[in-house]
Amino acid sequence: MGDLLRINNVHARVEDKEILNGINLTIHPGEVHVIMGPNGSGKSTLANVIMANPVYEMTEGEIFFDGEDITEDSTDKRARKGLFMSFQSPQELAGISVENFIRQAKLARGERTSLTKFRRAIEGEMELLDMKPEYKERYLNVGFSGGEKKKTEILQMLMLQPKLAILDETDSGLDVDAVRTVSRGLKEYLNEENAAIIITHHREILKEIEPDYVHVIYNGKIVKEGGNELVDEIEERGFGWIVGEEHA
Ligand code: ADP
Ligand code: MG
């Protein structure tokens, strides 16, 4: 099968500081890729560059998605093509309910369903995520706990069914039950067509979702790649041995 995402030699900077120094990454439909690395190594920057967040300036390289060159496409356009990102710190949107936000996002993608069907779908997904149905009427993320915000991100992912979902530390700061709930949502989303990039520091979320590839980023470069065994090795030994190899 063809590539879903192909990143060629991506360089990016924020405020004149070079953060990504030549990232290459290829993802096929159905694959789960994990990105790990010490704080400040460029993981979130990479996620933001894939989503075309204008704060991050891509200075070199190309990004292809689903057979098209999306290097020049805006965030909106990329989202409509099937890219989705769950944020480390989701924004609050006073005045817009969870339900309306998701419905508008679906309409923007040209997906029209009756309100009844939409409600049935969102309530089904909320049940899966242990969210009370009344949450859909609350303003997006306003007064939500950390765990509720993360679950709301997963709810959006399940409702929008992107082709590629990028989860930036969606499991951080969650209690064990909430991590399990997020994993359940991710499992529900994944199939042979949908792919995911999971940025994480913890192997907890990967207990039920076995990654196909693990990439370690350091100083804006991928310095180590492997399979699931790398997650356990990092959990036990930290990053020093990998970062050391890079400098050897
Ligand atoms: P990670 O997600 O791996 O912890 P980030 O990609 O968030 O790392 O950050 C990589 C580097 O880029 C850090 O030095 C960070 O301070 C810097 N950086 C990231 N985003 C911004 C921003 N919006 N403004 C200024 N510096 C930033
Ligand atoms: Mg980060």
Describe the model.
The protein is 35% helix and 28% strand. It is globular. The model has no long low-confidence stretch (mean pLDDT 94). It is built from eight helices and twelve strands. It has helices at 43-50, 75-81, 98-108, 115-128, 146-160, 176-189, 229-237, 240-247; strands at residues 5-14, 17-27, 32-36, 57-65, 68-69, 83-86, 93-97, 139-140, 164-168, 195-199, 213-218, 221-226. The structure holds adenosine-5'-diphosphate and magnesium ion. Magnesium ion binds next to α1. Adenosine-5'-diphosphate binds next to α1.
Distance between the termini: 37 Å
Number of strands: 12
- Compute the CA-based radius of gyration: 18 Å
Helical percentage: 25-40%
User: Strand-residue fraction?
Assistant: 25-35%
Mean pLDDT: 94
Major sheet = 6 strands, mixed
Principal-axis shape equals: globular
What is the H/E string? EEEHEEHEEHHEHEHEEEHH
SS element count, helices: 8
Which ligands are bound?
Answer: adenosine-5'-diphosphate, magnesium ion
Order of strands, main sheet, comes to 6-9-10-3-11-12
Q: Which structural class do the helices and strands define?
A: alpha/beta
Keywords for this entry:
binds magnesium ion, alpha/beta, 248 residues, binds adenosine-5'-diphosphate, 12 strands, single chain, six-stranded mixed sheet, four-stranded antiparallel sheet
Short description:
With 248 residues, the protein is α/β, with parallel strands linked by helices.
Topology overview:
Elements lengths: L4 E10 L2 E11 L4 E5 L6 H8 L6 E9 L2 E2 L5 H7 L1 E4 L6 E5 H11 L6 H14 L10 E2 L5 H15 L3 E5 L7 H14 L5 E5 L13 E6 L2 E6 L2 H9 L2 H8 L1
Parallel strand pairs: 3-10, 3-11, 6-9, 9-10
Antiparallel strand pairs: 1-2, 1-4, 4-5, 7-8, 11-12
Helix pairs in contact: 3-5, 5-6
The chain binds adenosine-5'-diphosphate (ADP) and magnesium ion.
